[in-house]
Amino acid sequence: MVLSPSAPGIRRAFGASLPRRSRGARPAPASRRRRRCVRALIEGLGSFRKGLGEDQMTPPQGRSLLTDGDEAAFSGRLLALARRTALEEGAGALSTVRLAREAGVPKLTVEKRFRTRADLLAALQADILVEAAEALVDALGGMSPRRPQALETLCRLWVAHWLDHPALFRVAFPEGAAPPRTGPRDPLAPLAPYFEEGLDGEGGRARADLLLCALHGIVQAQLGPRPGDWTEPGELVALAVDAARA
Amino acid sequence: MVLSPSAPGIRRAFGASLPRRSRGARPAPASRRRRRCVRALIEGLGSFRKGLGEDQMTPPQGRSLLTDGDEAAFSGRLLALARRTALEEGAGALSTVRLAREAGVPKLTVEKRFRTRADLLAALQADILVEAAEALVDALGGMSPRRPQALETLCRLWVAHWLDHPALFRVAFPEGAAPPRTGPRDPLAPLAPYFEEGLDGEGGRARADLLLCALHGIVQAQLGPRPGDWTEPGELVALAVDAARA
Q1: Does the structure's ipTM exceed the value 0.90?
Q2: Which residue in B has a C-alpha nearest to residue A119's C-alpha?
Q3: pLDDT tens across B61-100, in order?
Q4: What residues of chain B lie within 8 A of the CB of A215, using their CB?
Q5: Which band of pLDDT confidence, cut at 50, 70 and 90, is reported for residue B151?
Q6: Cα(B120)–Cα(B107) distance, rounded to whole angstroms?
Q7: Rounded to whole angstroms, how far apart are CA atoms A139 and A153?
């Protein structure tokens, strides 16, 4: 499995009919820099492959959402449509009314699943985080959380994932950082063993929180207006993991 | 001097005629929690006073911008108007056309100062950061960067400042973290001595960057949807400073 934009959630909803972004357009300097950072982050991690250079795909338009499939698949398709809108126009453009129009279903059909705009946004964010967590666990390829380098590998892949998908990052974290973990509905639950194993001992919870905050800031710095002013993200991740272990 | 919303930039532009926000409205639970965090962050810092409970003020409407004053003051007033728009409706609502309309001046008058929307946003962000840096240096009240607790005090105040002014934070950092320092036009230059003194030695620059990223993430976590899930920001700041020193 690869840590790529063709991630489980959308793939489940739309099968194999997903368009790939054309490679014709020359990337902006910022995105070329980001790609270099991503390569540096995953360098030496051996078995990981990434769909570098591809942007997040968006589901195709004009497809009837009411063709077969069960309730979960239907909600998944609604979320995929909402994701397209958020990626193209920002999370601010989301609404249940618009989603109903685009899906070609009555407004009530959407609001039965997502009562309000906030519910819809929360569900979309959870969807993106679950997808990221699943992609990361896939990319870790069964590496035991007990292996000494497991935590740093996970953190490098986490940062690389978001640098590779900045638009998804902005939708998933529009105003603040992710809920870290804890709780049965935590979308990042699959990653918890790596944090628990890598940061056990006294104050482990606080050190894990600090590490998550630092990783978040490292991504943000790279997505900001002057990413080149910052120390390379790979070096920062290594420092952050060391610090959290201390 | 106090670290309060009545900060230098806006005050310079509009003198003492700034309205205070009414205290009548009951704050939402999230903002009450934030206020508790801010209090914890500045507890024990002795000589610091904060205008807790006040939101960022916005300049009054309908005031002619072309009454006397020099060029810098005029640009400052335009920026203050732009700030009001960004605080009330988000940075996405900014434009040179709208700013000209609100200031009651021709579009070209605005575009001579801020050529594009991006220039305007960048100037507004720099204005907010300069203001934060000045307020922090004021709040430090001449504490020498050499004092052992200077760096942690600065970091606590930095996080407290943004938790106290979340709307300003969102305008200043709409998609990414701040440019850290370096360069003559760096709005955070006044804070540099504290980072240099507190984090000297080998790898100091990388450790300072990590600390800034962590502080950014700590604020973001508190502004996110489930701030209560995170370790208290005061504890995280202390850990982050310790880690950066190691």
Answers
A1: no
A2: B225
A3: 444 445 556 788 888 899 999 999 999 988 888 999 999 9
A4: 217
A5: very high
A6: 13
A7: 10
Distance CA A100, CA A107 (A): 5
A170 reaches B (C-beta below 8 A): yes
CB-based contact B210 A178, cutoff 8 Å: no
Find the domain containing A92 and state its range. 29-46+61-245
| Nearest C-alpha neighbor of A204 from the set A241, A240, A244 | A244
A56 within some domain: no
Look at residue B26 and tell me if it is in a domain.
Answer: no
CB of A81 closer than 8 Å to CB of A59? yes
CB of A222 less than 8 A from some CB of B:
yes
Query: How close does chain A come to B244, measured CA to CA in Å?
Result: 8
Taking only the tens place, the pLDDT of each residue in A160-204 is: 999 999 989 988 887 666 666 555 678 888 888 898 888 888 889
β-sheet bridge partners, residue B3? B50
CA B112 to chain centre: 26
Number of domains in chain A: 1
Is B239 close to A122, i.e. CB distance below 8 A?
Answer: no
Give the pLDDT band of residue A12 (cuts 50, 70, 90).
very low
Give B229→chain A minimum CA distance, Å.
Answer: 7
Q: Is A225 in contact with B176 (Cβ distance < 8 A)?
A: yes
Contact A220 B244 (CB under 8 A): no
Residues 6+ apart with CB under 8 A from B68: none
Residue A22 lies in a domain: no
Assign residue A133 the CATH number of its domain: 1.10.357.10
Task: List pLDDT tens digits, range A202-232.
Answer: 889 899 999 999 999 999 989 887 788 889 9
Task: Give me the percent of chain A exceeding a pLDDT of 90.
Answer: 35
Distance CA B176, CA B40 (A): 26
In angstroms, the CA A206 to CA A217 distance is: 16
Q: Does A9 fall in a domain?
A: no
What phi, psi does B20 have (nearest 5°)? -100, 145
A57 vs B: CB within 8 A: no
| Residues facing residue A50 across a β-bridge | A3
